[in-house]
């Protein structure tokens, strides 16, 4: 069973896609997102999807249009993450049999996303909602709705977020940024996996 941890690779290039993905998988992170504002993102997604189809789910982030969704599917992507809640993007994603993680921040956006067929909710930016805000939203969400926190989260605050009702996390610059060495990515990924497993009881 994969962990509810999504590695957000903003700025990754196709020539490093394979090596970075391999390091993340070895550390135990198997949901890996390439943002569409990266250099040649669809090429990276295609490389990663082809090379690691048996070991990871590769998806795209910063997906804003239906055309984007279709391009991600054609490249072999398996999930779509957006910074906003767009019902057309959600519907297109689900129609193409990919998982949908739309960005939400308010109760209205949460329910709109779920009604449109979202697989899980991506609260973004998490730092704006805060722990008390997540607890309040959780009180009205349907039982079983999955909530991922993104934006300002890392292994140091996993405990507080999970206590407030989070199911998982999207990790960006705390895990990867252009120029970061594979050694440092591996170290930080392992620390996050260890923290998540300890707190969530994974495994």
Automatic annotation (TrEMBL):
Pathway: Carbohydrate acid metabolism. It comes from the Bacteria. SUPFAM superfamilies: Aldolase. Keywords: Carbohydrate metabolism, Lyase. Belongs to the KHG/KDPG aldolase family. NCBIfam families: PRK09140.1. Homotrimer. This is 2-dehydro-3-deoxy-6-phosphogalactonate aldolase. It comes from Amphritea atlantica. The lineage of its organism: Bacteria, Pseudomonadati, Pseudomonadota, Gammaproteobacteria, Oceanospirillales.
């Amino acid at each position: 069973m994969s962990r509810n941890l999504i590695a957000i690779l903003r700025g990754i290039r196709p020539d490093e896609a394979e090596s970075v993905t391999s390091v993340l998988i070895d550390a135990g992170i198997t949901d890996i997102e390439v943002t569409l504002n990266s250099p040649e993102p669809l090429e990276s997604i295609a490389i990663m999807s082809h090379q690691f189809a048996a070991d990871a789910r590769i998806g795209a982030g910063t997906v804003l249009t239906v055309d984007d969704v279709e391009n991600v599917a054609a490249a072999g992507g398996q999930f779509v993450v957006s910074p906003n809640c767009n019902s057309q993007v959600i519907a297109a994603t689900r129609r193409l049999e990919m998982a949908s993680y739309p960005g939400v921040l308010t109760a209205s956006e949460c329910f709109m996303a779920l009604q449109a067929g979202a697989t899980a909710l991506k609260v973004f930016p998490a730092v704006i909602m805060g722990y008390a805000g997540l607890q309040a939203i959780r009180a009205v969400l349907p039982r079983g709705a999955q909530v991922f926190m993104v934006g300002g989260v890392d292994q140091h605050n996993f405990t507080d977020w999970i206590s407030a009702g989070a199911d998982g996390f999207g990790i960006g610059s705390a895990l990867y940024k252009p120029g970061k060495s594979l050694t440092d990515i591996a170290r930080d990924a392992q620390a996050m996996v260890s923290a998540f497993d300890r707190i969530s009881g994974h495994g």
